[in-house]
Amino acid sequence: MRSDQIRTTFLDYFRGLDHLELPPGPLFTDDRDLLFTNAGMVQFKPFFLGLDRPPRPRLTTAQRCVRTVDIDRIGHTDRHATSFEMLGNFAFSDYFKRESMAWALDLLTGDFGLERDRLWMTVLRGDEESVDLWRSLGVPAERVQRLGPEDNFWSMDVPGPSGPTSEIFYDRGPGVGRDGGPAVDSERFVELWNLVFMQYRRGDSDDEILGDLPGRHIDTGLGRDRLAMVLQGVPNLQETDVARPTLRAVRDATGRDDEPAAHRLVTDHLRTAVFLVGAGVRPGNEGRGYVVRRLLRRAVRRLVLLGVDEPVLGPIADSVTEVPPGAPARPVVEREEAAFRRTLRAGNRLLESALERGPLGGETVFKLHDTYGFPVDLTVEIAREQGVPVDTDGFARLMREHRERSRAGR
Predict the structure, then answer these.
(1) What is the pLDDT of the chain when averaged over all its residues?
(2) Domain residues for 382?
(3) What is the SS3 assignment for 115-183?
(4) pTM higher than the cut 0.90
(5) Which stretches make up the Alanyl-transfer RNA synthetases family profile domain (predicted)?
(6) CB 271 within 8 A of CB 243
(7) Do 222 and 251 share a domain, yes or no?
C-alpha cells in the first residue's frame, strides 16, 4: 500500500466514525516551549487544556512532524527519522480507552490487513484497566506488556497536557531481532500506534503532575511511515515509497553501495531540511535556523567521508517528495553546502592534528568555532567517533567570556 493510500484509508475510517478532518497544522507555531510541531496534538493543546472549544468533539488529521531528539540514531536503526507523518484521531470529553483501542485494532487488522497474532501492546505499569480492555478485545495476556513511565507516559516534554499510554507494536519476525515482545527488542517489535489517554496537567517534568485536565481526552498517533515500512515490506524508513527517490539519488551521487547507514542519514537529514526550508525556516546560528543548518552540515560531512568532494545536495533536494508548494529549497541548500564545505576544509586540518594529540581542550574547541566557524556539536561528534574526550565545560566558559567582552564593547 502506498503512503498516500495509507493516509487516505486512515482519514476515511475516522471520518466514518464522525470525526471531522482538519488540515495539518504548521511545522512550527508560536508556542514558546516548542521549536517545531513534534506531534499531531500540538495544534489542539488549547482544547486539551480547556482554554478553547474544539469545532467538534471528534477530530482527525495527518500531521507532518519534526523531532531531532533521536538524531544520533538516524541510519543506525530502521525506525527513527527526524521528520515523519503522524496520523491522529482525537476525542475531547467524548470516547475514551475502549473505543480508541477497539478502533485501532479493527483498522490495523481490517483495512490495513495486518495479522492479529503479530500485534503486541504495552501499557503503563499499574494500569490494569487497559490490560483488561485489551484482553476483552481478544488480545492474549502474553502479548500485553507492562512498562514504566519512560515508555508508557506521554507529554510534550514541556508543561501542558499529559497522560498514560498504550502502544501497539508489530512483530517484524525473527530475521530482524530477538523474540520476547517490545520490552526485549524495539527493532523487531516496531511501534506503530500510540494511544494517549490525555487526562493530566504536567508541570516542569513528567514526575510533576499538577492535577487533572478539565476532561478525559484521547490523542492517538499512528506513524504513517512506519506502517508503510511494514506494509511495503522494506527494511527501514528510508526505503519506503516517499523516501526512496532521495535515497536513490544519494547513492547515485556517492557511487557506492557499501555505506547504507550513511546514505540513510543523508536522505533523512536532507528531507527534513527541505521540509523546513519549504515552511519558511532558513539556516542560521540559533533556534529553528540552527536545526536546519545542523541537519545540512551533518549530511555534508557524511558525504565528504564517503568521498564526495563536490557539492551535490542541491540536485538531490529536487528528489524530495511531498514538499508543499512554496519557495524552492534547492538554492538555500546549495548555498549552505558550499559555505560549509569551505568551513570543513579550513577547520579539518586543525581538528585532525588536535585529535592526534589526545583530549580536546576548551581552547581548541573555541578556536575551531570562533575562527573557523566549526560548530561545537560537530566537533564533539567527530571526537566521540574517535573516542577522544572533549572539554565542553571549558568551551562554554570561553563562550561566556567572549559574549561578555562583546557586550562590554558595545
Answers:
(1) 94
(2) 358-410
(3) CHHHEEEEEECCCHHHHHHHHHCCCCHHHEEEECHHHHEEECCCCEEEEEEEEEEEECCCCCCCCCCCC
(4) yes
(5) 1-410
(6) yes
(7) no
